[in-house]
Amino acid sequence: MVRRVALAADVPRFSTHTTRHLCLTDLARMGWELHAIATFAGHRSTDSTLRYIHLSGRELSAKLSSSMAQIHAWRVGMLTGDDGGEADGVRA
To answer: At CA 27, angle to CA 24 and CA 28, rounded to 5?
Structure first.
């Protein structure tokens, strides 16, 4: 059924398996941890899960940039004493 609809829509590479790839990629985009995605997908190995997740270079670059900004802010706070006594979001 899905195959016929995909062919009729001129999308020959679309299948029910495509939706699995899309779902797991969306979970990764929402910040789910790899092990949680693997458990959700029923994979025994995270290597299998990684074959399903397709993030663009732009998405990975944005995530790295955001993470580095958080690390930089934390370091500046630690060096200047403006961290409010917090390290890793936990008050001492």
So the answer is: 90
pTM of the model: 0.62
Number of domains in the chain: 2
Whole domain around residue 8: which residue ranges? 1-55
Burial of 47 (0-12, 13-18, 19+ CB in 10 A): exposed
Per-residue pLDDT of the chain (92 residues; tens, 9 = 90+): 888 888 888 988 888 888 899 999 999 999 899 999 999 999 999 999 999 998 888 888 888 888 899 999 999 999 998 865 555 555 44
